[in-house]
Structure formats: C-alpha cells, structure tokens
Automatic annotation (TrEMBL):
Protein name: Bifunctional protein FolD
Gene behind this protein: folD
GO molecular function, one term: methenyltetrahydrofolate cyclohydrolase activity
Organism annotation: Fulvimarina pelagi HTCC2506
Gene3D superfamilies tied to this protein: Leucine Dehydrogenase, chain A, domain 1, NAD(P)-binding Rossmann-like Domain
Catalytic reaction(s) noted: (6R)-5,10-methylene-5,6,7,8-tetrahydrofolate + NADP(+) = (6R)-5,10-methenyltetrahydrofolate + NADPH; (6R)-5,10-methenyltetrahydrofolate + H2O = (6R)-10-formyltetrahydrofolate + H(+)
Residues of the Tetrahydrofolate dehydrogenase/cyclohydrolase NAD(P)-binding domain: 137-291
Length: 300
C-alpha cells in the first residue's frame, strides 16, 4: 500500500476544498505548529508539516522555542493560539522537555483545535462512537484510510490484531477498527504466544517501536499488514559518516520482505504510514476550518 501516493491524493483534495472554502466564505484554514527544543528529527517533521500546510493553501505558523522554555510560557502560547480566530489547528510536537508536563499542555489545547486528537474530549468522543465530531489522531486515521482502501468500509467478521497499546496509536486504532465492526485484539509486550495471536489476524497493525520484530511467522496468508514503526538502525553496508559512525536506514516494526510474501497488502517504511500521518493532519485542519465556518466538514 503506497502511503506516499495515497497521501498525495488526500493533500490534493485538501487543497481543492481549501480553495472552495476561501471562495465561499473568505476563510483560510490556519495551522500552528509548536516545537520546544532542537531535536534534529523533530525539526525535520515540523519543517515538513509547515511546508505541506503551505502547499495546501493554509496559513502556517511555526513557534520554535528554546529547550529551557517553562511550562507557564508554553501554556501562554497555547492560550493565545486558542483565542486566535485565524488558527484552526494547534499541534504541539511531542515529546516535550522534562520540565514540561505533556498532559497539562495537551489538555490546555481547545479540543476543537486539537488536530492531533490527543485531548481527553476527543479521546472520549472516539471511545463513545462519536468519531465524526472528534479529531481522530492522524496516524490511526491514516492507517484506517489504507485499510478501507483494501477491505472496504465494513470490516465485519475480520480479526484485527494491534501490537502496541500507546495512547497515540494502539488504543485509538482499536477504537476505529471496533467502530468498523472488526473483532479487535490489542497485543503488547506482555502478551503470551504473540506470534500465534498475530497469525490469526486478517488485519495486523504493528506499532511497538521495535525494528523488524514482526517476522513472516506472525503473518496470516492474505492478511493486510500496516507497519506504524519508524526505526533508524545502523546500516554499515552503506558506509560511514564523516564522524566515523555507520550510516543509518529506516526500518519498520515489520520484517518487510518476509511479511510481504504472505500478506495481501503491506505498507512500506518509509513511504507508508508516515506520509499518511501528515496527510491526515492537513485533513483535520481543513475539517476544523469548515466547522469554524459553520459548514459541514468534508470526510476523508
Ligand atoms: N504532537 C505530535 N503529533 C505528531 O503527529 C507527531 C509528534 N507530535 N511527534 C513526532 C511524531 C512523528 N511523526 C511523524 C510524521 C511523519 C513521518 C514521515 O512522514 N516519515 C517518512 C520518512 C521521514 C524520514 O525519512 O525520516 C516516511 O515514513 O516515509 C514520520 C513521523 C509525527 N509525530
């Protein structure tokens, strides 16, 4: 499953619907991305989010704050963005430095601008089957688009196994699959006979953060496999960097070649779930702007 290509089609639709909203109401969707500290990987993600937002025709605002920023100062910025009518989506890049309580910052974001879908109000909306009114977290939302492309809207009778129980992927993924009528199992590091549990899955979602842990024997013949992992591992076969350390490459949580032999469809890393996450962030921001304009939000 080509996440990069599918994400492109979503971004095109977002761009089109942004034009339509502007023509009809004069409103332009606005996305604010806040990053604290200078972790290089985080900088790259934030940069590409801002770039995509501009390509969609959004107003894009980036707040880059020093690593020693206090919680109070960050909360003040969030509060200002909550009150800013030109901003429809607020994303505070995680993780935050240790002097700042992630939970406190997330709960300070206006739930109706929480395009990450991490606020308790949105978590609760999804858990109670009100996903249409909620912001659905971007990574699970992107996974669902690819699963539905393969299997249709109704997953009745299918077994879905998610490996990983995080609040940002595993748990919301389970809610979305359940809402689509799949029979859902959440497996994790304490699960007994993990390979056997996974081998029962028609839909297998790997979100554990352990490079290539899901090997061929975990995969049922004909399964749809979604790999959420993005792990940077040493790749000495590519040679050395200038500082003498080995070059690196990205791998998922799934051993791709082995799994691909058995799967009906599988997402690659890179080029799978990652680009879909960014696509869904733009879709959520567009939806937020439509709601602020009092118009029915387009579905993705
Ligand atoms: N509040 C918050 N929301 C997030 O959504 C969030 C976050 N914090 N913190 C960090 C993680 C990470 N994340 C990624 C998004 C896209 C790719 C992506 O597009 N990856 C490319 C590869 C990029 C590369 O080459 O490094 C791919 O998989 O093809 C990766 C990672 C969003 N995150």
């Amino acid at each position: 499953m080509d996440g990069k290509g599918r994400s492109k089609s979503i971004l095109e639709e977002v761009t089109e619907k942004t034009k339509a909203l502007k023509a009809e109401t004069g409103m332009q969707p606005g996305l604010a991305v806040v990053i604290v500290g200078s972790d290089p990987a985080s900088q790259v993600y934030v940069g590409s989010k801002a770039k995509r937002a501009e390509e969609c025709g959004f107003k894009s605002v980036k707040h880059e704050l020093p690593a020693e920023t206090s919680e109070a100062d960050l909360l003040k910025i969030v509060d200002d963005l909550n009150k800013d009518d030109t901003i429809h989506g607020i994303l505070v890049q995680l993780p935050l430095p240790k002097q700042i309580d992630d939970g406190k910052v997330i709960q300070a974001i206006d739930p109706d601008k929480d395009v990450d879908g991490f606020h308790l109000v949105n978590v609760g909306r999804i858990a109670t089957g009100a996903a249409d009114e909620a912001f659905v977290p971007c990574t699970p939302a992107g996974c669902m688009v690819m699963i539905r492309d393969m299997l249709g809207e109704d997953l009745s009778g299918l077994n879905a196994v998610i490996v990983g129980r995080s609040n940002i992927v595993g748990k919301p993924m389970a809610q979305l699959l359940l809402a689509a009528n799949a029979t859902v199992t959440i497996a994790h590091s304490r699960t007994k006979n993990l390979a056997a549990v996974c081998a029962n899955a028609d839909i297998l979602v790997a979100a554990v953060g352990r490079p290539e842990m899901v090997t061929g024997d975990y995969v049922k013949e004909g399964a749809v496999v979604v790999d959420v992992g993005i792990n940077r591992v040493d790749a000495p076969e590519k040679g050395m960097k200038e500082d003498g350390s080995p070059k690196t490459r990205l791998v998922g949580d799934v051993a791709y070649d082995e799994a691909a032999k058995k799967a009906k469809a599988i997402t690659p890393v890179p080029g799978g779930v990652g680009p879909m996450t960014i696509g869904m962030l733009m879709a959520n921001t567009l939806r937020s702007a439509y709601r602020a304009a009092g118009k029915e939000a387009p579905k993705f």
